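Journal club side-thread
Mid-discussion, someone asked how the predicted structure for our own chain would compare to the paper's figures. Pasting it here so we can look after the session.
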Amino acid sequence: MYYFILFIVFFFPVLPAYPATFYISVSSGNDQYSSQQAQSPGTPWKSLNKLNSFSRMLCAGDTVLFKRSDVFFGTINILTSGAPFAPICFGAYGRGSRPVISALVALKEWKSVGNGIYESDCEADNNTNTLILNGSQMTMGRYPNKGYLTLESHNHNISITDNQLTSSKNWTGGEVVIRKNRWTIDKSLITDHKGNTLYYAEGTTTSPTNGYGYFIQKNIQTLDQPGEWFFDAKRKKMAVFFGDKKPSSCTVTTAAIGTLVSIKGFNNISFHDLAFVGAGTNAFHIINSGNIVIDGCTIDLTGNEAILVSYSPNLTVKNTSIDHSLSGGINLDAGCTYASILNNTIRNTGLIPGLGRSGTGTYEGITSFGDYTVIERNEIENTGYNGIYFGGNSSYVKNNLIKSFCLTKDDGAGIYVGDWSKTYDKKIIENIVLNGVGVGEGTNNPKGRFAEGIYIDDNSESVTITGNTVSLCANNGIKIHNAKNINVLGNTVYNNAVQLRLEQDDHLSADTAVRKNNILYNNNILYNTFYSKDNLQLVAKLSSHWEDINSFGRLDSNFNNNTSNNVKRKEILTAAPKAVNGVFEQSIWPGTVPGRLKDDILFEYNASSVTRTITLQKEYSDVQNNLYNGEVTIKPYSSVILISGVNKSKTEFALSNVTPSK
């Protein structure tokens, strides 16, 4: 046997397997080429179908390159794994724009069905939420065209009654979209319509709220505005309201494919410099797969979440642009440990009510619950609900710019933490959070705008909030609600309706131990700047259903512009709160400083990784009484509040985000 093995090794040596590169081009490819020929850019394959048929043959270290400026229709199905130091890579070759992986098909041969509505045969994905008209994402037809109708009553979670609704149009078979509370918009199939009552399939377990709103969609009777559409999945017909315009003068596309990249149970795969457009549900759907990298890509016009991931550790999404996702940008469940979400831009997420998924945790820029997750240096702008909703042990959110959020539903925040399971050591570090808008439409308080900058909600604990800037939020800058062991250190909170909010509203047992385990307790709020721009903005508000505000924690050594009742260094909040309607409250109002609360305050921030220097037109001082003449330099991911002339308000701590000029 020994000599036989030597014979085999000598005469049939094992040849090393070298990584291969395969080329694909719609414009110059041919699927008849062999796998050997496809390793030359001169003889590439043509289609994703050919790639998928070969996918199981890919080996660790192999590369698949798509020709730039080409558009590839279909799904990339991953059917094999790479290795930890030799992933299977998908990228681009040649010159021009990024290769496009697209789910969009053009709709043509329109037929009028009357009243300005035209139909076209359509093989769209049955769950499509996407119709693109002349390059713009269009809303589904709905009744009413804007806003919400109001429900007066409901029967559990099976029907709603609107006393103003008539049966002149029967909405059976359509979809009812119900704003069930401030943070939940649900949609359900209408199973019957009788008089002023709509019966519907349950959907989520959340029940409606009387006095809240609803509207109706997914019914051809709703089409009466240019670009509104309805897809009849049974007949495979797309109906669009063109009015007096001829359909032939428009370019209309819709999603014919749900997912553009599907990875289920395979590891060590990377994507670089590719564009993904028009997915009916998700551009990337990743399940039980580790070490997936998405780097330098663009994702646009997605029907649900651009990137949906579950039980997949060590995911990296970086340097990627995500735009126009109808339900969410990046959504990672608790099984996605050690994720890195770095240096991405996520814009225009969840802006159309009723086109995002039902339930909570939707219409969000980034949603992540895995342990040891890093969310850093992202820019998130124009978001329907939370900019970032995160949890997970030892996870942190750092150096992000979050602008304009809570545009579709509210009682959310730029950065939101609400633990549905206990996690520890979460950090929110040096982020810039601006313009929490809030939306009261479809609620029983339409003028209310409940948008927070940083919001630590029910049952959360062990969160450190340090060095952040929060401004222009309709409700609170920083809100701590029924949470404990929260450290709020060295933040700048400026020009929000309320700068700091501490609220305990649970009706819990009078047993002290039980309450301390479940309510707002043992919090440290130190060395922050809470600055109100005008006299109508509270510096701080604290409230509880119990006479226990003094046990909320330590509120000490913070600067605010309350000149008459400033919270001074080493002063623990001890003043007796007042009870109003059974709720104990204590508020700190800003002092009146003539000529300084509006025009003579300069607020500047720096949402970049390099220092920023701005020129000053006159002399300013900051809240620590440092003087500035000519210019001020702001450190990365920091901000400064400057007051014209010499600041006479006193503060007794030195924590500066700026470098004084000489």
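Post-session note: The first helix runs from residue 2 to 11.
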